[in-house]
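Standup notes, structure subgroup. Blocker cleared on the magnesium ion input:
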Amino acid sequence: MRNLSDILTGLPFTELQGAADVEISAVVFDSRKVVPGCLFVAVKGTQVDGHNYIAKAITDGAVAIICEDLPGHTAVEASFLMVADSAVALGIVAANFYDNPSQKLKLVGVTGTNGKTTIATLLYQLFRDLGYKCGLLSTVENQINGKIIPSTHTTPDQVELNSLLDAMVAQGCDYCFMEVSSHAVAQHRIEGLMFAGGIFSNLTHDHLDYHKTFDAYLKAKKGFFDALPKNAFALTNADDRNGSVMLQNTRAHKKTYALKTMADFKAKVLENQFGGLLLAIDSDEVWFKMVGSFNAYNLMAVFAAATLLEQDRAKVLTSLSKLSGAEGRFDYMIGPNKIIGIVDYAHTPNAVQNVLSTVKDIRKGNEKVITVIGCGGDRDKTKRPIMAKVASDWSDKVILTSDNPRTEDPAQIIKDMEAGIPVAAQRNAVSIIDRREAIKTACMLAQPGDIIVLAGKGHEKYQDINGVKNHFDDKEELLNQFKLMA
Ligand SMILES: CC(=O)N[C@H]1[C@@H](OP(=O)(O)OP(=O)(O)OC[C@H]2O[C@@H](n3ccc(=O)[nH]c3=O)[C@H](O)[C@@H]2O)O[C@H](CO)[C@@H](O)[C@@H]1O[C@H](C)C(=O)N[C@@H](C)C(=O)N[C@H](CCC(=O)O)C(=O)O
Ligand SMILES: Nc1ncnc2c1ncn2[C@@H]1O[C@H](COP(=O)(O)OP(=O)(O)OP(=O)(O)O)[C@@H](O)[C@H]1O
Ligand SMILES: N[C@H](CCC[C@H](N)C(=O)O)C(=O)O
Ligand SMILES: [Mg+2]
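Run returned:
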């Protein structure tokens, strides 16, 4: 229980109707989750307006309301607080309700189109290996000192986020590493948090269904850096064309990492093999388990952040060299006849190109690359033909299939993808709606030594069809096929 007046610290409200001296049992922004004595925050969403549920929230027991517009007929059955932006207010009151847990540990956020999960997970694994208690908030899962808490979003909502941070503080965590998605910045899920550092990986095509323009997408990412406090670090990828944009208006300490351009933290890729990467970092030459030069960027982001968090360089490099990152990112397995299977979460044009170019770079000879790929339903449609073209350009054979059609017709999603395959390459492309059949076909087409890449689902253990998450696991499917072929 918290007193309403205590959780209003830092909240710019324009009007209060009713008492501020009210005990609050919980902060809730979904009328379906209202509990007696709660504060209900009415948020305008992409589907509906939370203000429409204020009356229901009060009937179900809400004792205080935060809103942007007062409902017309306010018999004062609850205290009403008027704010300019309810989502911002939600972040502030949620943080206050949990007594600002982000200020009681070192919170580091990672943003960018690709690499967030990899960087956040490596940081979490590294700092645990260095002996710290840590939390992780990521697409794959949330974790507190090794205990897994399933995640539904890359970045949780304001209430869940603060509740998880509070649990981390209660369990003695020194650090929390979290992904900051562009949706989260735009929806103010990170409002009211105190960050010790921010990391930018890269910015390429994704999420234009939500942000509409690349510029709006960029501004959302930049918003995270604009809001960092001045004692935090703002670490950016200097090789990314938008890396410097991120730092333009930040008050935080500006730092850079790179492989090509001048930077505070710089590395050079000496070897790139299935077994890992050999990097030259200043005078050190270190082997890492991570594969692909895109992972050299992720490793440098982690190395730089650990250094900025004042960790011992030698210990960091030793520990980092042993780590293999997040599940479902360049997970590779060897099947019968030395066929190689790679399960990867590449779901943007740039990620698909990175993974496939890495495969081409490190294969031994002229082994064929067979790629199985789909595109998510109810997500950015403009990336579909581009992803298909990139997959086709960088593979010998491409099988277009389903990847979480959600409420869309999977055949139509595949048609959108087919439009991107150049005419000359069409004979090397086939469309198979059923992902299991697609994987089976890839295995049947593979000759000894060939490389099968399953893109887009990575760690996911489901296929989302019409809101039903049916069990499906790329790795499991591939291993089953390998068993049948043996
Ligand atoms: C498009 C999007 O991001 N939507 C998120 C958003 O929902 P919304 O704005 O559509 O909400 P809405 O349904 O319009 O409802 C508006 C308000 O009314 C309330 N409401 C609604 C109905 C009701 O009966 N009663 C009620 O009170 C809702 O609780 C909400 O507060 O706010 C919700 C609460 O925080 C999120 O759960 C929801 O995520 C949806 C499920 C989602 O799929 N989001 C994805 C796209 C996402 O966020 N992805 C990023 C990662 C992207 C990446 O890979 O980089 C992530 O961080 O996970
Ligand atoms: N630094 C990088 N640059 C480009 N591509 C990358 C990079 N790191 C990873 N990738 C590719 O992007 C995929 C997703 O990586 P990861 O899960 O780390 O990214 P993410 O930003 O967390 O994605 P999401 O937005 O879905 O949470 C990987 O499977 C790989 O194909
Ligand atoms: N978290 C991302 C990646 C999803 C990857 C892919 N499996 C899909 O469903 O599109 C998103 O929601 O856009
Ligand atoms: Mg992620």
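Discussed briefly. The CA atoms of residues 112 and 358 lie 20 Å apart.
Next: hand off to the docking folks.
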